[in-house]
Amino acid sequence: MRSPIVEMLLPRAAALAQARPAPYALSMRNARLLVCGSCFLLACTETPAPSAKADPNLVSFSVETSVEPASEVQLCKYIEMPRDKGDVLAVDAITHTYTEGSHHFLVYKTTLAEMPAGGDTLVPCEESAWMTVVRGVAYAAQSPEGEIVLPEGVSQRFQSGEVLLLQTHYLNAGSEALSARIDFDLHLTTVEAAPTEAGVLFFFNPIIHLPPNGAATAELSCPIPADANLIFAASHMHKQGTRFRADIEGGDDARKLYETSEWAEPLPLELDAPSGTLKAGDRIRYACDFENAGPQTITAGPSAATDEMCMFIGMYYPRLDSTTELCNAGAATTLGSASCLDTLACARACNDDVECRASCLDQVCPTAAMPMLRFVQCVAPSCGELCAEAGTDSDMCQSCVTSSCPLEAIACQSATCEGG
Length: 420
Known about the structure:
The protein is an alpha+beta fold. 17% of the residues lie in helices and 37% in strands. The chain is built from eight helices and 23 strands. The strands form five sheets. Strands 1, 3, 7, 8, 10 and 11 form a six-stranded mixed beta sheet that branches.
């Protein structure tokens, strides 16, 4: 069963890896309500391994593939940072170029200690367990060329030999095969020269429901627990997107952060003080307006052709925790009061009825939306195939869920929204 709440671009919550287990276990009764499936398609060619150029302060990676006519593909491969440039690699600038046709290009941090066998080969993303190993975002782009230069004294950090995941999304609407190439360069400095670590905010709202020939808005509010400074802000929507706006809210005050009506290649907004200043207790609230001129219900998902997205992306410093970077403690704007468990049970009963599933998501209460997303993103790659074959009520499926995603399952079970 294809579930749109499973087919998300965002990684699962990495912050939970450092959390302590809750003092109670996930009940088998509730575990039997937790379900999902998986995603994507493709055709590709083998890609060259990453190589360091002559400049000792430059680390470069290249990817090449061929995208078949009239096809949409999402491709993944692992890349490895060099081991001969010290224990910690500090990066103060990143540049990229890619051929026309890509909808986005992403580089994720992972939990992998070493390159998996065959991991350096470009494959359809569903053929790798990428969602189970992602712990954050290192870089994001949605225009054919770009550059990020960090403020003086600020750098992104990578470990020697660190394994990253490179992901690209191409849509070839033409009648000829598309030759695609990505070049990705990291410019090195030293930790001493740039002692403040930067991070990336990567917010994704899973609650999108566009009725046929209708309009809708998706909104998400993400808390900022400590002082920080934004370097840039950017949006990500698909073709139904008509307007994006992000505000910084603090106390009773709110100020506009970023706004655009461009969905295909929105220009990132470079920020400095005071416009990019975030204070402890602030929230970034962002909203996407959509208009659906077609006859089909549209929900959140990865396809630029058939799904929608509502995302806020921003680089900032000093770096905070992964819970903050992925808006795991955020609240979606909804009119519903259903718990995480009840929402998943409702969606499961819909089978392949997209409108039914979208209506279920409309009923989730604001603070249950993100625990639901984290749970689904963990279970889909870990247990989706097994549960589809053995049945979601089988002991094998429930054992996989409780062993593979215990923290995510408990968070979902706890998201009852009682008291507010």
